[in-house]
Amino acid sequence: MDEVEVVVAHTERATLRVGDVFLKVDSDQTNTDIEVKAMALAPIPTPEILWRKPPVLALAALSGSALGRLGEPSPASSAAWAAAGAAIRKLHDAPLPPWSSRRSLEEIRTRLDDECEGLVANDVLPADVVTRNREVAEAALRPWTPVFIHGDLQITHVFVDGDQVTGVIDWSEAAPGDALYDLAILTLGHEEHLDDVIAGYGIDVDRAVIRAWWSWRSLCAARWLIEHGFDPDTPGAEFDVLRSQM
Hints:
With about 250 residues, the protein is of the alpha+beta class. It has 8 helices and 10 strands. β8 and β9 form a beta hairpin. The termini are far apart.
């Protein structure tokens, strides 16, 4: 029998791997509903759904390996990063999914303000780091034309084999949203590959907004990461991203 590998586990969800099958267990079936619908609509490779028996979703493993990990040099080539950019552009050019955005602009702004206040009040980060990144993040808080976004496009969610994208996983945050948010999450902590991604994406983008989303994501993710047993202060991770914006 294949060994059971715990890919990720916290109080909200867990993912296990058994051989070539991934078993995802989510406490909120709304997330799984969106994931299944998004994968059916996305015009890019996604994992095959083997079966679903709530609260478990079984997916076939993708070929290749993840584009990289936050805090570590990416083993993928520049061409692979460009291919990821091209895949994102194809997703963003697709028709919008038939459900509403999961966050309004006002909710995004309010969350940022609340998280910044908590980081300072609890001495998680120096006040000047939080204040500076709150200023940087402001550039992202503007109206945008919504596109079909993945919504959580971390580099561990994009699989490549050589210079080809073999699939994208974890679609529970998919929704209409800001195209530059996807590009920012993919390149968070890997600024050295931003040019490759933009080249593959095929059109010029506002890099100041991408940097703004780096700050927003890093500020807003910190408390959740700490509460769920992850360390945003590991080298190359969220706190280093915030410090680099100073």
